[in-house]
Amino acid sequence: MKKIIGPSLIHLFFWAFTLASLIPFILIFMVSISSEDSILQKGYSLFPKEISFAAYQFLFNDFSEIAKAYGITILTTLIGTVVSLLMTALFAYPLSRPDLPLRRTLSFYIFFTMLFGGGMVPWYMTYVNMFDLKNTIFAMIIPNLLLSAFNVLLMRSFFSSTIPESVVESATIDGASEIRIFFSIVLPLSLPIMATIGLFNTLSYWNDWYNCMLFIDKPELYNIQYLMNQNVNQ
Questions:
Q1: Cys bridge to 73: 17, 52, 204, 223, which one at CB 3.0-4.6 A?
Q2: Which pTM does this prediction carry?
């Protein structure tokens, strides 16, 4: 009897957990078919008080604009994530090598940027006046390419603690260059930290609407986050 009750309770628990995980998606759908007035008056509900398909009408009427915004977001996310991840790895790996000159000084320089920043005005003027990125798609890519000090230190710690020094020395003795060691040995052994930092970068680019608000005035270059933000605030 106990052998039957035990698995049944476990199955019941996971079925309940699965159903609970579906509730947010069901709520989103119910809200999408609720009228705006009913949401403002009675809030979100799993059971709409007044059915309305105005949201879907708006979606299909402005489909080309929304599709273009999604395309901008996907493009900036793909390019930004790959390039930012590569830059972070290329900076973190030398810092993990004990024979790098000025290793501690460079590490302190990275850490120092976590404590102090240059401020909004010089940051904005640099990208607008010096790099002339305003109203270009690069304005949503390059500002986030600046190395995150936390990600660099996190990846450096992984390289130092996970990549065996003997493997690097053996490759060096066999005549492999630093670039060959990095791409053929270090990166394949560092997939966990690459996936982690890549996820951080992906979320950062995908959810970014602030840079679009600062640098973009042309509607055809709006990403989906800023487009949604505009529609909500109208």
A1: 223
A2: 0.76
